Amino acid sequence: MTDLWTPAALESATGGTLHGAPRPIGGASIDTRTLQPGDLFFAIRGEARDGHDFVRAALDKGAGAAVVAQSRAEEFSAGPVLAVPETSDDPVLDAMRAIGKAARARTKAAIVAVTGSVGKTGTKEALRHVLGAQGETHASVASYNNHWGVPLTLARMPESARFGVFEIGMNHAAEILPLVAQVRPDVALITTVEPVHIEHFPSLSAIADAKGEIFSGLAPGGVAVINRDNPNFARMLAHAHASKAGRVITFGEHESADVRAHRILTRPDISVVDATVMGVPVTYQLGTPGRHVAMNSLGVLACVHALGADLARAALSLAGLKPPVGRGERTALRIDEGDAYLVDESYNANPASIRASLATLKGIDTGARGRRIAVLGDMKELGEAGEGLHRELAEAVKANGIDLVFTAGPLMRHLFEALPMDNRGVAAHTADELTDAVVATLRPGDAVMVKGSNSMRMVRIVEAVKARYALPPDQREASLQAVR
Fold first, then answer.
1. Confidence label for 78 from pLDDT (cuts 50, 70 and 90)
2. Every domain range in the chain assigned CATH 3.40.1390.10
3. Helix ranges (DSSP H) in 337-385
4. Distance between CA atoms of 110 and 133, rounded to whole angstroms?
5. How much is the pLDDT for 474?
6. How many of the other CB atoms lie within 10 Å of CB of 445?
7. Which of 351, 417, 414 is nearest to 379 (CA)?
8. DSSP count for the chain of H helices, then E strands
């Protein structure tokens, strides 16, 4: 296996000095809990801990080398360590950015950057999936989309990659600017603009402006991909025109969209889309259900076209797409000798994504006895609008025929109290307090969806339901087929 980084390349990129003989370096890490032998460990300063406190543990686990501040290098004299100049409060983070910059400079890969209020990670994973079928593809892990995740993902990018897919996030204005400047994408996509992190912005238009920052880093002549259906389309388009973009591609159901959906058929575990891509008719199946996923798949195909990759092959690949963990994963359950169905949307939540998840839940056939059950945790970072945005979800609950709603958190209680008595399950302050009630209420035929902001730890409810009712892996697919 070719080394990801040679000692000479590391010293050249960072201006640092290697002490001790480094092992072959095949990856990069900032977390000893997930570090793999051969990873280059960056001892960055976290919000609560200094990475230098974990250097010995990283080396003991087989790290190829550790990147440390020059003044701390003597503490790890046995090495191997890369001691870097102290040019800021966090010189190791600077070094990680420098190595990321070197990775971007040496690669010949076509690079895509993805942002948006909703659907970033799912769209990034879809691009990883379809492009990976056409060539070596490097992409962000999980939601590594911030000031640590983006340079780390760059530092991990092998020189041999044909495609690179980067997720870029933000919760304040001007946060995307330095990240996209590092990535310098050939194609940049905005999935949509919604009132997410609204407590940090004066308006939805301001969020659109912040998302539009992604076009500032486009390589000259690059392609901007924009959701034509979004009310803030004109604002995003203005940012694209102000950038170095040589071309704009739009997607959606709008009659003028370049990549346009004419029909979307949603089923419990798949969706079917009839579309035109730059005037070419395309019909394809998605292995992940949900109208919102189908809409984002149009953006995926727009990116594929912009990159010059094989469009027909990409459309065919979408049939094998599966939802990321915590973002729509389906699990077949067995309750009292009957089948039931769990939808894990526990990773995060905002008003738009909860509405989309409720609509997907509506599409699940629960039979004569089954119920559609939503278990919802607080949506964070909504500011003064939070109470109203939670309460307004009652309309979506009614519109999608949800039978029973359980809520966790003080904000979701506003939704709970806005519901008719027949729709109320249990309201609790935390997910842990709600878990037993959810597990106890499930019965054959039910379809239960769990969703909330990540800090609400709704995944604990998912884990409890799986522990009690999940079928063995070898039986799950057959049961899911029956639910379809």
1. confident
2. 7-92
3. 351-362
4. 15
5. 58
6. 18
7. 351
8. 17, 20
